[in-house]
């Protein structure tokens, strides 16, 4: 009887579904370990996981055939939820490229990385930098380095961020500020400082009805961007934002204690 011939892939894959109890860790299929990790000892290994969300790699420890220490960080930073489908591609050793699919059965879309924003994802306008603008930005940076600031720093020629709401803006409980706007406005610097000092920094956004909302300013080190955190889902819901709406965020004033933005919105007209 002829011997059965099998052809093994150069970069083998395995998949896992995220379950409600997957936060603590997931296992590598034993069949995958047997066939493709021959000679490798899983116990105590440091696996390197990479996704399209960031250029960074996540280092996750293994115990037996399970990803354990470091997995929770990978889980949270990649916004994984029960029902998500993960496809692991073995790149050699204990390095895996991970593709994430959500319940739409499509690959999960992540906010653009620093410098990777595309025209069809985010529509953004920033006033052209002038000598006066550069001076104001430099001055604001100097002001925020002082801890005894008391007076409001008025922004005479305010920066504006114009964003067309996409489906991806409704998948997360945070709103990622585009990298160029975050740098120009100083939001990235402030968010990073707050994170480094373990402090919570709240910004104020005034909606088109004049109501002020307190939103937490977070920092995402993996992408070096600032984002609106706690308070954003409520703000989004109250203002009845929909896909296609165009929102304009304008920096009105900045102090060491308060940042005030005003938001206006051009509602999308439904097409039939």
Automatic annotation (TrEMBL):
Q: Where in the cell is it found?
A: Nucleus
| Molecular functions per Gene Ontology | DNA binding
Q: Which InterPro entries match?
A: B3_DNA-bd, DNA-bd_pseudobarrel_sf, REM_fam
Where is the TF-B3 domain positioned along the sequence? Answer: 11-104, 203-265
| Coiled-coil spans in chain | none
> Which PROSITE patterns did the record assign?
B3 (PS50863)
- What is a single Pfam family found in this protein's UniProt entry? B3
Keywords for this entry? DNA-binding, Nucleus, Repeat, Transcription, Transcription regulation
> What is the name of this protein?
TF-B3 domain-containing protein
Q: Which organism is it from?
A: Aquilegia coerulea
An annotated GO cellular component of this protein is:
nucleus
